[in-house]
Design a protein that fits this description.
The complex is a heterodimer of chains A (146) and B (381).
Chain A: H1 3-13, H2 18-35, H3 44-59, H4 61-69, H5 71-99, E1 128-129, E2 132-133
Antiparallel strand pairs in A: 1-2
Chain B: H1 4-9, H2 13-16, E1 20-21, H3 32-44, H4 55-75, E2 83-86, H5 89-99, E3 104-108, E4 123-127, H6 137-144, E5 149-153, H7 165-174, E6 178-182, H8 194-197, E7 201-205, E8 216-220, H9 222-226, E9 238-242, E10 245-248, H10 262-278, H11 280-292, E11 300-301, E12 310-314, H12 320-331, E13 333-334, E14 336-338, H13 343-348, E15 354-358, H14 365-380
Parallel strand pairs in B: 1-13, 3-4, 3-5, 5-6, 6-7
Antiparallel strand pairs in B: 2-8, 7-8, 9-10, 11-12, 12-15, 14-15
Helix pairs in contact in B: 3-10, 4-10, 6-7, 12-14
The chains are: A mainly alpha (146), B alpha/beta (381).
Bound molecules: pyridoxal-5'-phosphate.
Chain lengths: 146, 381
C-alpha cells in the first residue's frame, strides 16, 4: 500500500524528471488496482519492500525479518500517518489563507511560522522620513511616523 | 589453473565499483582489450571496410579480416568465409529460418524465445525432456526422421545444462536432417570445434563472450551457405545491379547487408583472442567448481541438477524478483530473475519464474560465500 505515498511523492518529483514520471504512473496504476481490490500489476510494491528489506539486512537481519513479515501492516501505518499529515497540512493551508494564521483563527499567531509579519516597519526608523518610507514602500504606513 | 585475481585486473570495472556480478548468462563484463579495440577503431581508422582504398579504409579492411579469422579459429571452422557477422544470436537464427530451404523443424522443450519463435510459422515440434530434465535422446531419435532441420540450444540459459549435441548431430545426419546449434551460452564457456562436431550451423552473440553489444555470428558450412539466399538485401550483399536485377556477392558478404558494426566486429575478434588465451576448458572448470561450492538447504533447484556454470533456483515462499532485489540491495549481488526468455518452459510447468546466478571467469569463491550467506538470510526472513 506504500504505492499511495509513492504516487504522491513521485508525482511531485515527476514534474522535474521523466524517471519519476514513469514511477508515478506505475504507482498510480498500483493504487488504482489496490483500491479496486486487485493485485498490483507492476511490482513497485514488491520493489519497495525488497529494497527496504535488503538494505536492512546489512545492519540487522532481525529488523529486516520484522519489516519483511509485517510489511503490509507497516505500510498501512505509514499510509495512515501520511493521510493524517496531509489532512492537517491542508487544514493549516486553509487557515493561513483565510485567517493569516495556520494554527487557526483563535490561536496565538506565534504558533504559526507562516503568519505574515506586518510589523516590519519600525515607525521610529530614521529611514521613514517626511511621510515617505524608503525601505518599506507601500507596506509602511508613514502617516504614523513620528 | 586460472589466476582469477590476475584476470580481474583485466576488467577495469572492478577498480571502480564494489559489486558481485552473477548475471553473466545475460551479459558479462568487458575486458580492457575489448574496450581498447573499440576505441582504437573510433580514434584511429573510423571508416568503411571493403570499399574505400584510402589509409583508414584499407587498415579497417585488414582488421575486419583479422577479426573474422580469429572467430574462425575460436570455433574451429575451416574457412573464414563461413563466419557471417550478424547483430546477435537471434538474428543468426532468423537468418537460417528465413534463408535455408526446409519445411519442418524440430527443437527441444528448453529453447530461448530466440530459437523458438522464428520456427513457429513452420511445421514445428519439440522433444520433451525426461523427468530429470535431461535430453531424451530416444524420443529425439524417434521423431527426427520426420524433420528437415533440428535447431537446438547447446547449453541452456536456464541452468547451464548442455545437451548431448554430438549424438544429436550424428543421429540427425543419419536421418538426413541438418542441425543448427544455438551456441549463445556454450561458445563463451566451453571449447567448441564445429568441424569435430560436424554441426551445420552455429549461432552465437558477441556480447555474451566478453565482446561488444550488437554483434553476433552465424557459422555455416560453406556448401550450405552457398545455396542460401540472403533475407536482407542492400549494399555489400551484391557485386552488381541493374534497375531490375542484381548479382549476389560471394560469401560471407552476401549475408552482411549494409555498412557493418565495425567496432563491434573488431571487439569481438579481441574477445575471441582473449578467451583463447585463457582457455575455455579452464573457464568451464572454474565455473563448475564455483557452482559446486553452493551448499544451501531449503532452496529449490530449477532444471537439471548437474555440473554447469549456472545456478537456477527458487526460495520457497519468496518471489524470484524479490530475492534478486534483496541481494542487490544488501550486498550489490547482481543476479537475474524471471522467465529468462523461456516462457514456454515455465508456462508448461506452471512456474512463474526463478532466480538465476550465472558465473564466469572472474568470479571468486569469496563471492560465492557471500552469495550463500545472503541467501541464508533471505531464506530466514
Ligand atoms: C540460449 C540463448 N539463446 C539465444 C539467446 C539470444 O541471444 P541474443 O539476445 O544475443 O540474440 C540467448 C540470450 O540470452 C540465450 O541465452
Amino acid at each position: 500500500m506504500l504505492c499511495l505515498i509513492a504516487w504522491v511523492v513521485f508525482g511531485i518529483l515527476g514534474l522535474f524528471s521523466v524517471k519519476y514520471r514513469v514511477l508515478a504512473k506505475e504507482s498510480f496504476d498500483c493504487v488504482f488496482r489496490r483500491i479496486t481490490f486487485k493485485k498490483c500489476n507492476s511490482n513497485l510494491d514488491e520493489r519497495i519492500k525488497s529494497k527496504l528489506t535488503g538494505n536492512l539486512m546489512k545492519f540487522s537481519p532481525k529488523m529486516a525479518r520484522g519489516v519483511y513479515r509485517h510489511y503490509e501492516f507497516l505500510s498501512w501505518i505509514f499510509v495512515a500517518l501520511f493521510v493524517v499529515s496531509l489532512v492537517l497540512g491542508a487544514q493549516g493551508a486553509y487557515n493561513l489563507a483565510m485567517y493569516d494564521n495556520c494554527a487557526g483563527p483563535n490561536a496565538d499567531p506565534d504558533q504559526c511560522i507562516f503568519t505574515p509579519d506586518y510589523d516590519v516597519v519600525d515607525c521610529d526608523d530614521p529611514l521613514c522620513d517626511d511621510g515617505h518610507c524608503e525601505e518599506c514602500g507601500d507596506d509602511c504606513d508613514c502617516e504614523e511616523c513620528s | 589453473m586460472m589466476n582469477v585475481e590476475k584476470i580481474r585486473k583485466d576488467f577495469p570495472i572492478f577498480e571502480k565499483k564494489k559489486f558481485i556480478y552473477f548475471d553473466n548468462a545475460c551479459m558479462p563484463l568487458r575486458p580492457k582489450v575489448v574496450i581498447d579495440k573499440i576505441n582504437e577503431y573510433y580514434t584511429e581508422y573510423p571508416a568503411c571496410a571493403g570499399r574505400s582504398y584510402h589509409d583508414f579504409g584499407t587498415r579497417l579492411t585488414d582488421e575486419v579480416a583479422n577479426a573474422r579469422d580469429l572467430v574462425k579459429k575460436f570455433i574451429g571452422a575451416k574457412k573464414a568465409k563461413e563466419i557471417i557477422f550478424t547483430k546477435n544470436a537471434t538474428e543468426s537464427i532468423n537468418l537460417v529460418a528465413n534463408s535455408f530451404k526446409f519445411n519442418s523443424v524440430l527443437t527441444s522443450d528448453r529453447e530461448h524465445n530466440s530459437n523458438l519463435l522464428p520456427w513457429q510459422k513452420f511445421d514445428h515440434d519439440v522433444v520433451k525432456s525426461k523427468k530429470d530434465f535431461s535430453f531424451d535422446l530416444e524420443s529425439f531419435s524417434d521423431k527426427v526422421k520426420n524433420f528437415d532441420i533440428v535447431s537446438m540450444v547447446h547449453t541452456s540459459n536456464l541452468e547451464g545444462y548442455s545437451l548431448p549435441v554430438k549424438e544429436i548431430i550424428k543421429i540427425a545426419h543419419e536421418q538426413g536432417a541438418k542441425v543448427l546449434l544455438d551456441g549463445a551460452q556454450s561458445v563463451p564457456h566451453k571449447e567448441i570445434n564445429v568441424r569435430k562436431l560436424d554441426v551445420d550451423f552455429l549461432a552465437f552473440s558477441g556480447h555474451k563472450m566478453l565482446g561488444p553489444n550488437g554483434v553476433g555470428v552465424l557459422y555455416g558450412k560453406e556448401e550450405l551457405l552457398d545455396g542460401m539466399k540472403p533475407f536482407i538485401l542492400g549494399g555489400e550483399t551484391v557485386s552488381d545491379s541493374t534497375y531490375d536485377s542484381y548479382k549476389l556477392e560471394e560469401l560471407p558478404h552476401k549475408f552482411e547487408a549494409g555498412l557493418q558494426n565495425y567496432p563491434g566486429i573488431l571487439g569481438l575478434g579481441s574477445a575471441a583472442k582473449y578467451l583463447m588465451k585463457i582457455g575455455r576448458n579452464n573457464i568451464e572448470k572454474h565455473e563448475n567448481m564455483l557452482k559446486s561450492k553452493i551448499d544451501i538447504e531449503g532452496v529449490e533447484k530449477i532444471g537439471h541438477v548437474g555440473e554447469s556454470g549456472i545456478f537456477n533456483f527458487n526460495i520457497p515462499g519468496k518471489g524470484a524478483h524479490e530475492v534478486a532485489m534483496m541481494l542487490s540491495a544488501s550486498k550489490n549481488i547482481m543476479i537475474r530473475s524471471g522467465a529468462h526468455c523461456m516462457h514456454s518452459w515455465f508456462n508448461s510447468r506452471n512456474l512463474e519464474g526463478s532466480a538465476r546466478a550465472s558465473f564466469y571467469l572472474y568470479n571468486t569463491l569469496e563471492e560465492i560465500d557471500t552469495f550463500v550467506e545472503e541467501l541464508e538470510k533471505i531464506k530466514k526472513l
